[in-house]
Write a structure and sequence with these properties.
InterPro entries: CbiX-like, Sirohydro_Cobaltochel/CbiX
Number of domains: 2
Keywords: Lyase, Metal-binding
Protein name: CbiX/SirB N-terminal domain-containing protein
Order of helices and strands: EHEHEHEHEHEHEHH
Number of strands: 7
Radius of gyration: 18 Å
Pfam families: CbiX (PF01903)
CATH architecture of the largest domain: 3-Layer(aba) Sandwich
Organism: Kribbella koreensis
Structural class: alpha/beta
Strand order of the largest sheet: 2-1-3-4
Number of helices: 8
CATH topology of the largest domain: Rossmann fold
Distance between the termini: 16 Å
Length: 240
């Protein structure tokens, strides 16, 4: 059986680490026959290169699945490098996003804090919203920005409201700037996998606006990670 190596960004925040570990446990629970391990591309340990070396030391094969919401530097360089180092043993899967599954989870997180019943009125005591700003971590890589824009489009289709992207780092328009020029009733959709520094920053920038929780260890995201694993395995088999 080909190992699944989940590759997360890493965080110094224990809440984020717990959430990532919970997601990896969910992945393992959905496919008990697949050996699953977790490595990090930054901040935390075990570092991805050393983990991959240990996994394939006995001739095993592995698929590295990014627990990252967008493509960009970490997927192309940090994770891509592992596949380049051991081309006959290691395959790199695609990032989790953009994907309709993530848009569905975003809708659920938003629904927990605002009324999405209709743009013109509220069906409950919570305030309806006219537009949503998707708050993303950001990147200097254009591929990541395009992926976030694609996710915003998927979310807009589902909630029948305009959705723009605001970033808390990297290139692209900053979250505060997008919120300042956004008119009407605005909500913020947190496009982050886990709580931590960036999620806290999103809440600070948003002020009194409703802000959804991070995506978290949702079983649908665990299933999506396994789908990325399966696709990478099939592509590897075709290449051989």
């Amino acid at each position: 059986m080909i190992d699944l190596v989940a590759a997360a960004h890493g965080t110094a925040d224990p809440r984020g680490i717990r959430e990532v570990h919970a997601l990896v446990r969910s992945i393992a629970g959905l496919r008990p026959s697949v050996p699953v391990s977790l490595g990090f591309v930054d901040v935390d340990v075990p570092a991805l290169p050393g983990l991959v070396d240990r996994v394939v030391a006995d001739g095993n094969q592995a698929v590295v699945v990014p627990l990252l919401l967008s493509s960009g530097y970490h997927t192309a360089v940090d994770i891509g490098r592992e596949a380049e180092r051991r081309p006959y043993q290691v395959q790199a899967a695609s990032a989790l996003g953009p994907d309709p599954v993530l848009a569905d989870v975003l809708v659920d997180r938003l629904s927990a804090c605002v009324d999405l019943g209709s743009a013109s009125g509220s069906r409950s005591g919570s305030a309806a919203v006219d537009r949503v700003v998707l708050a993303a971590a950001g990147s200097s890589d254009r591929r990541a920005l395009l992926d976030c824009s694609a996710t915003a489009a998927l979310l807009s289709e589902r909630i029948d409201r305009p959705v723009e992207v605001g970033y808390v780092s990297g290139a692209g328009e900053r979250l505060g700037s997008v919120l300042t020029r956004s008119t009407g009733r605005v909500a913020v959709a947190t496009y982050l996998l886990a709580p931590g520094f960036f999620a806290d920053r999103v809440r600070r920038i948003a002020g009194d606006l409703p802000v959804s929780a991070p995506l978290g260890a949702d079983p649908r995201i665990a299933a999506l990670a396994l789908h990325r694993y399966d696709v990478a395995r099939k592509l590897s088999a075709v290449a051989v």
